[in-house]
Every structure is written in structure tokens, then in C-alpha cells.
Design brief:
Pfam families: Methylase_S. By secondary structure, the chain is of the alpha+beta class. It is built from 17 helices and 19 strands.
Length: 550
């Protein structure tokens, strides 16, 4: 410290430096932690020559010498690929005040404060509004130690940053910040130890990401095997896959499900962050991602008839479809709906998977009383009256009347029966945030805009099961494939009506809905436990770090 002060005074007497404004003694409350007896607290300007480049905007040109700003410093790197250029004369003028030399450190003062970077090239550029840390005596300084400190100081400065539009740190703040200064040789040992530990952290992070990827791949493979079971074959002489029995395929399915059960905690209890660091930043864990996939496979298995067992005593799905057809005939007779177009048979190419013998494939409009949408004419506005719901009131998967518009009662009364949603009907968003079903569980009157499909139920329509189907990946993929438009996708009403729906017998539908609810509740619990475990681990880590630095 004495050597640096002596060197600084020599530079001032030689008029190489100007004496900076004195920042005063360091108060006890400025010392953020205790330091060893052979360390000292010092103002940054006592140890380093700190400048900030030009404050003016030179005349830019198509080529010349780069002018570096805070935008060119991020993630610990200096990026010269997107800079503005200035003339040799302007560069020379700026360098009189803030010449950049090798081993100097740049520090972003505007916007994303910090991102310190050591200049490891022969610099031929100028800086503008960028902190420039230079050395009174390079032989008495360890740039890598200063870099470590500035990374920590950046956190403090961001908390104290001023500026109404963007974060800003002044040159005075940089010069006055207290720095804990160890002896020179200890600085070198600290840098070496930090490098060693960071290399270990990098190695651990790579191993962690590999483990996370392995768990994700294992879950994907297990789910694919579950959805597409290969028949059990133990020898080459056994039957080919084209002639195997249903019982063999069922045995393979059961074995794959058992395999998932055996490794359930590994697959769905994994608290590792998602690979590439995204998980830690967003608190998105591998286990949460796998539970999300598990939700999808539960619904898919339900639609394939593999979630609950079939009962030979159940009526067939055809019985239910015939009952709904009779109910729709009565609605036609009463003038509530029109006769639909002739049924388009569902060919094999539309059947995404095989169904049990008691099930049927049918179109969505055959299982509903009618599939329509909101009024295509702009409705009159009113301050009170009947709620008029738009996509924004529905895009969370439930009805939200907050900030909803209203239409006059007279307008609502003139709407057709099919455009008056009621309890047990299903709403389905078809524009923008498309593919979101909303099971109506409210009793008050309301109407919807044209971008929302209304799926009116008949008396026997299995509304809960249909809602389950529409929430599935199968239904969303179908909607995505038929959606039109570029900037804003829209699901055509005709395409929605023709969506192939796998229909089980009525009694089996009820068992499916109950089982899916049970398993989804289990998924909810898994997610809560994962989130809590990760939160507890974070708190433990923070407490450990605090005890280490206390």
C-alpha cells in the first residue's frame, strides 16, 4: 500500500496524473466484512488509476478505430463485432485522457453494470463512459485479483445504482469504493485458489448436466416404450411383430410400466436443474420437466384405453353415440340446432392409435350437440349487463371476469341458443392462444367473442371426458396441424368439428376421469415436493455460504 501511494505521488508530481478529489477516510459501516490483520481497506483510487473515457459523442465513420461502450462488454468478454468507428484524431484525443493498455480492466458503467473484463490484447481502441482501471505500478498489482473484486463490487453497485431510465454508476462512485487489499503474494495465491475451485465447479456442472440429460433421456425412452410397447419375444424363432397376440403386447406394456415404477423416484424426484443452466435461473428442475411429460402420458394412455381396465359388462361406445344422436334429433325438431352435414367416415390414416374393441372413433361434432363460436358481428358495449368474454378472460384455462366487457341484456336475449354457453358446455380458444379448453362450471349468463368456440353439450355428452381429451397433447397437436395464419394462428371451426375423438363406453369414461384426477393430484404433489426440496436446498446452501464468510 505504501509503495502504491509513493508511486501515485510521483506520477502526480510528474504531472502524468491529476490529483483526484479526496474521498475521505473509510467509515466502519463501509467495511462490508472483517479482513485479516495483514490486509487493509483502501479507496479504489488509492490503489488504481480510474478513468471513464470520453463523455462526448465523436463523429462516427464507416471505418477507423473502434469506440467501445458498455454495450460491448458482457459475460466477462469484450466484443468488438458491433462497434462504432472514429477517426485517428478523435482516438488520439480520447487517449490523452483515457489511454487503454494491456492488462487494464474495463467496467460497464451504464445499463448492465459491471461485467468487468481484463484487456488481454494489444488495444487499439478508445472507450466512452466505460470504467477504465489502470495501475500506478503494474509490478505491485495483480489484475486477476482486481477482476475478482470488481465482480463482487458490481453486485453492490447494482443495488445502489442511480438513473431514472437506466442503471448508472458514476466515476466518483468507482473511485471511492472501498477495496479489501491483501499482500501482493497472497493476492496471487487467492487468484490461483479461485481458478482451481472454479475449474472444479465447471467440472461438477458438466457432470451435473450430463446426469440431468441422462435422466431426461431415460424418462423419454421409458415413456416411448410405454406408448409404443414392443411384443415380448425371447427367441428368433418366435412369431414376428406382425402376428403377435394382443396378450403379448399387453405383457410388454405392463413390463414397461413396471420399469417406470421401479425407477419412479429417479425419474420424477430429480432436483437437478435443467441442462445449460436454464433450470437454475428459472428454477425449472429435471423432475418438474419429467412430471410435465408424465401428465401428458397419463392423458395419452387414458385416450388409448390403457389407463383403466375394460369391463365386458359395460355397454359399448356405440350405444352412447346412438343415444346422443337421438338427443340431437330432438334439438333439431325443437329448432335449436340445424341438421348437420353427412358424417365423414374416419379412415385409418386419421386414427392415431388402436382402440379397445368396445370403443369407437367419432368426430367432435357428433359427440356434442353443436360446435359453433361467438357472434361474428361486433356487439354493442354497455357499462353493465351481460359479461362478454374474450381470449384474455380465458387464456389461463378458466373463466376470469376481471376487466371483462359487458353487452346489453337485449343483445344477449337475441342470440341463438347455440351461442349462449351454459354449465357443462365447453369453451375452446381458436385464435392466438389457441387450443385451451375451459369447462364451464358457472351458472350466470355470459357470451363470448368469435375467437372462442362454444361446444354445446347434449344431455348424454360426456363433458368431463371430452374436456380431458381437449386438454391432451393429442388434441393440441391436431389443432396445431390444422391452424392457419402466420402472425396469429387460427383453428378453423370446420377442422375443429372434424377432430377425431376416441370414445369409450359411458361407464368406462367415468372410471377414466376418476383415475386421471387421482394421477393428476399425484403429479401436483410431486411438483410441490420438488419445488419445496429445491427451495430447502437453496436455503441450506445460502446459510452455508453465509456461515463461511461470516
Amino acid at each position: 500500500m505504501d509503495d502504491l501511494i509513493t508511486k501515485k505521488e510521483m506520477l502526480i508530481k510528474s504531472k502524468i496524473l491529476k490529483r483526484a478529489k479526496y474521498s475521505g477516510e473509510i467509515d466502519e459501516d463501509e467495511k462490508r466484512f472483517l479482513i485479516p490483520d495483514n490486509w487493509v481497506w483502501a479507496r479504489a483510487s488509492d490503489i488504481y488509476d480510474i478513468r471513464d473515457g470520453t463523455h462526448d459523442s465523436p463523429k462516427y465513420q464507416d471505418n477507423g478505430l473502434p469506440l467501445v461502450t458498455s454495450k460491448n462488454i458482457y459475460s466477462g468478454k469484450l466484443d468488438l463485432t458491433n462497434v462504432k468507428y472514429i477517426s485517428d484524431e478523435d482516438h488520439a484525443k480520447i487517449s490523452e485522457r483515457s489511454k487503454v493498455d494491456k492488462d487494464d480492466i474495463l467496467f460497464a458503467m451504464i445499463g448492465s453494470i459491471g461485467n468487468p473484463v481484463i484487456i488481454d490484447i494489444d488495444p487499439i481502441f478508445s472507450v466512452k463512459n466505460v470504467g477504465l482501471f489502470k495501475y500506478y505500478d503494474r509490478s505491485q498489482s495483480v489484475p486477476e485479483f482486481l477482476l475478482l473484486f470488481l465482480k463482487l463490487a458490481a453486485v453492490w453497485m447494482k443495488e445502489e445504482a442511480s438513473g431514472a431510465v437506466q442503471s448508472f454508476v458514476s466515476l466518483g462512485q468507482l473511485r471511492s469504493i472501498p477495496i479489501p487489499l491483501p499482500p501482493l503474494e497472497e493476492q496471487k495465491r487467492i487468484v490461483a485458489k479461485v481458478d482451481e475451485l472454479m475449474a472444479l465447479c465447471d467440472k461438477l456442472e458438466v457432470q451435473q448436466q450430463q446426469q440431468a440429460n441422462n435422466v431426461l433421456r431415460a424418462n423419454t425412452a421409458a415413456i416411448n416404450a410405454l406408448l409404443n410397447p414392443e411384443p415380448q419375444q425371447t427367441t428368433k424363432s418366435q412369431k414376428t411383430s406382425a402376428t403377435v397376440s394382443v396378450s403379448e403386447t399387453k405383457a410388454s406394456f405392463e413390463q414397461n410400466w413396471k420399469r417406470i415404477a421401479q425407477h419412479f423416484n429417479t425419474l420424477y424426484g430429480c432436483t437437478l436443474p435443467m441442462p445449460d443452466g436454464e433450470g437454475r435461473k428459472k428454477k425449472h428442475l429435471v423432475g418438474l420437466e419429467n412430471v410435465k411429460a408424465l401428465r401428458q402420458v397419463i392423458t395419452t394412455l387414458a385416450l388409448m384405453g390403457k389407463l383403466v381396465s375394460q369391463d365386458k359388462n359395460d355397454d359399448t361406445a356405440l350405444t352412447l353415440l346412438n343415444k346422443i344422436a337421438l338427443e340431437k334429433d330432438k334439438l333439431v325438431d325443437n329448432g335449436l340446432i340445424k341438421n348437420g352435414k353427412p358424417l365423414i367416415p374416419i379412415d385409418l390414416s386419421e386414427q392415431s392409435f388402436d382402440l379397445p374393441a368396445s370403443w369407437e372413433w367419432t368426430r367432435l361434432h357428433e359427440i356434442m350437440a353443436v360446435v359453433t363460436d361467438g357472434d361474428h358481428q361486433a356487439p354493442p358495449k354497455a357499462n353493465t349487463g351481460i359479461p362478454f368474454l374474450v381470449i384474455g378472460n380465458l387464456n389461463q384455462g378458466k373463466i376470469n371476469r376481471e376487466n371483462c366487457r359487458f353487452v346489453p341484456n337485449e343483445y344477449y336475449e337475441k342470440l341463438n341458443w347455440s351461442r349462449k354457453p351454459t354449465k357443462k358446455d365447453i369453451l375452446y380458444t381458436v385464435t392466438g392462444s389457441y387450443g385451451i379448453p375451459i369447462m364451464i362450471d358457472v351458472s350466470y349468463d355470459f357470451c363470448v367473442q368469435r375467437h372462442v368456440a362454444i361446444l354445446k353439450s347434449s344431455k348424454s355428452t360426456p363433458d368431463q371426458y371430452i374436456n380431458l381429451v381437449l386438454r391432451s397433447k393429442y388434441a393440441f397437436d391436431y389443432a396445431s396441424n390444422i391452424a392457419t395464419g402466420i402472425a396469429q394462428k387460427t383453428v378453423p371451426l370446420t377442422g375443429l368439428r372434424n377432430m377425431p375423438i376416441p370414445i369409450p363406453p359411458e361407464a368406462e369414461q367415468k372410471r377414466i376421469v376418476v383415475k386421471v384426477d387421482q394421477l393428476m393430484n399425484l403429479c401436483d404433489q410431486l411438483e410441490q415436493q420438488l419445488t419445496q426440496s429445491y427451495s430447502d436446498a437453496e436455503k441450506l446452501m445460502q446459510a452455508t455460504v453465509q456461515s463461511l464468510v461470516a
